[in-house]
Amino acid sequence: MPVFEYTALNGSGKKIKGIIDADSLAAARQKIRGGGNYPVNIKESVAKKEGGKGSFFTRQLGTSIKQQEIHLATRQLATLLGAGIPLVPSIAGLIEQTSNRSLQTVLAQIKDAVNEGNSLTSALDEHPRLFSKIYINMVRAGEASGSLDVVLDRLAEFGENQHAIRSRVKAAMLYPIFMALVGVAVLFLLITFIVPSITSVFEGTQQALPLPTIILISLSTILKQFWWAVLACIFASVALVRWYIGTTAGRRSWDRLKLTAPGIRDLTIKTASARFSRTLSSLLQSGVPLFSSLLIVRNIVDNVLLAEEIGAAGEELEKGASLSHFFRGSEYFPPMLVQMMAVGEQSGALDTMLGKAAESYEKEVEAKILALTSMIEPVMILTMGVAVSFIVVSILLPIFEMNQLIR
After folding, report:
1. CA distance 20 to 5
2. Is the CB of residue 91 less than 8 Å from the CB of residue 77?
3. pTM of the full structure
4. What is the pLDDT of residues 238-268, one digit of tens each?
5. How many Å apart are CA 155 and CA 81, to the nearest integer?
6. Distance between CA atoms of 322 and 220, rounded to whole angstroms?
7. What's domain 176-407's architecture?
8. For residue 259, what are the CA distances in angstroms to 250, 254, 269, 271, 280?
9. Which of 14, 212, 329, 388 could form an SS bridge with 394, CB 3.0 to 4.6 Å?
10. CA pair distance 104, 136, nearest whole angstrom
């Protein structure tokens, strides 16, 4: 049954907007009038089947639906199903509760698909930009096991935890980024506006200027006259690097650099380990088979080399090898994670052990990021101090030499 978006006038003449499902445009108009409203504009909402890259948990539909709204809707649907309300009325209840029209439209399309006899999994699969493979596979496992409410609750908790971690990391990075922008702006103003007015005094003298002063005057002239060219070179360099990373060879080189460069290697490995453990644990707890879970997880580690190792682990798993045995020889997966995998396999509680490993690595990643951001501040202050000192020395040196000549 098609879904229509409409604008109408209610009994008091106030404009209202909403969505409605009906067999045709005429039926939708009649339905709106039956509710005591006068339709002004009605258009059919068409589901968009689009691929695309999104976050590893949910994929945003453009910019109109936020991840927090998906997490909230998932939590509410789990609550309604847990209370014994059938699926279609539960989705209808979600449509009434949400204020986001784009999300209302998507939920109406999902409700319509389920009402026609499709599974919730196939209905969600019509919106790949909004629901990731992890989400869809966990829902499929929940439907197969008859525990959809439990799986949806777990999905909501999983998504909320991941969003909270990303929010804390962004908040920690906000201050250093602000300081960097202010520092660059101050140095640019000093070199392009303040320095020329001071160094112009030396132009009338016949004395040879010190090398630092010559460098400062040249830098000031370049930035003042060709600042647009400098900016163009910076943007072109960034665009070139982004293009190269977008190629297959460039992505592989970039991912290898992240796994080998001192300072970021440890953070990269622990971040990937936390994602791997948390996602695999959630999939296994929801009833998704281990081999299928590995196929899903390899797409969310955000590293080509790690994805290849996880894919190879899946192939070895099909041959009868254990997961921990394969990763024991890996240079990228930490020994503690491998050991917890082995314990989980022996005890039959692999999902639980992976969950504990994920908690440990998530805390380590957060602590490491906070430590790195706290180190950025003194480094930036030191860099600013060196730059300002260079400017001061470059200005004072010729003044001292002029005083000595006068004496």
Report:
1. 7
2. yes
3. 0.67
4. 999 999 998 989 999 999 998 888 878 888 8
5. 14
6. 64
7. Up-down Bundle (1.20)
8. 14, 9, 7, 11, 21
9. 212
10. 19
